[in-house]
Amino acid sequence: MRGIIRQISLPRRLILDLMHASMGVPFVALRRRMAIAPAVEARAGCAQRPGWAAIFTKAFCLVARDEPVLRTMYIGGPWPHFYELPFSIGMVAISRNEAGEQCVLPQRVRGAEDLTLAEIDAQIRHAMTAPVSKVPMFRRLLGVTRLPRPLRRLLWSACFAIGRQRANFCGNFGLTSVAAIGPGNLDALSPGPYVISYGALAADHSIEVVIRWDHRVTDAAMIARALSRMEQVLNGDIAAELRAGQRPVAKAVRSVAG
């Protein structure tokens, strides 16, 4: 059957490169439904509600601050070793429409454990709405993607062999979700050691969270503890910060007849 030959767009070429880089990562997944009513209720009262992407980015970073293994990646060459980052670097998947095509581009968020939710949310929203040329991470990645395929693959291989560069381009974790579109969760791939995905919020204020991780770096017991700790952080530190941003309650003023 005769079909139509179409060019592969630049954003799609980037995904092809990232999936090629992810092929050698032995991912294992663990999913858990978290009860996060305190965080949900605190967010509902905020004057400016941060998105769930910002909330989960900071929650993971707060857990990783106390668990160095969550900031650790496996570097295979030229000699196998682990590389531990001093702080977390998250790669948040941003849904965009470029030239009429739906695509996903990763936005880097550095050190979210030391940022406010408003600051993290502003970075993510900027990446969602600003021109691609105005988002440094998009500009850098797409600049590499414009190169011929053999040169791109060579650069990616060199990047993954150097811990510092792998951290700059892939981070220690990725965050992705389709919750804004409807129910469902992702078993996503990434060149980084950790990928977090969350589903739609349920009526009972619970949410399913999935962590996929590089089994060379750690084991399931560590990830199970990390998920438990994330739930505590969401209902503790995150909920407290959200409450601090709640709308002031207007008090009724009783008139007194003179």
Structure, described:
The chain has helices at 10-22, 37-44, 52-66, 117-129, 136-145, 149-160, 163-170, 220-244, and strands at 27-35, 72-75, 81-84, 89-98, 101-110, 173-176, 194-198, 206-214. It is α/β, with parallel strands linked by helices. It has a single domain, classed as Chloramphenicol Acetyltransferase, CATH 3.30.559. The longest helix has 25 residues, at 220-244. It is globular and about 55 Å long. The mean pLDDT is 91.
Characteristic terms for this protein:
about 260 residues; alpha/beta; Chloramphenicol Acetyltransferase; six-stranded mixed sheet; two-stranded antiparallel ribbon; 8 helices; globular
- Give the C-level CATH assignment: Alpha Beta
CATH architecture: 2-Layer Sandwich
Roughly what percent helix? Answer: 40-55%
Radius of gyration: 20 Å
* CATH homologous superfamily assignment: Chloramphenicol acetyltransferase-like domain
Major sheet: arrangement of strands: 1-8-7-6-4-5
Query: Shape, please?
Result: globular
The biggest beta sheet reads: 6 strands, mixed
Structural class: alpha/beta
Strand segment tally: 8
pLDDT under 50 segments (min length 5)? none
Mean pLDDT value = 91
**What's the domain count?**
1
CATH topology: Chloramphenicol Acetyltransferase
Q: How much strand? A: 15-25%
Q: Termini, distance in Å?
A: 90 Å
- H-E string: HEHHEEEEHHHHEEEH
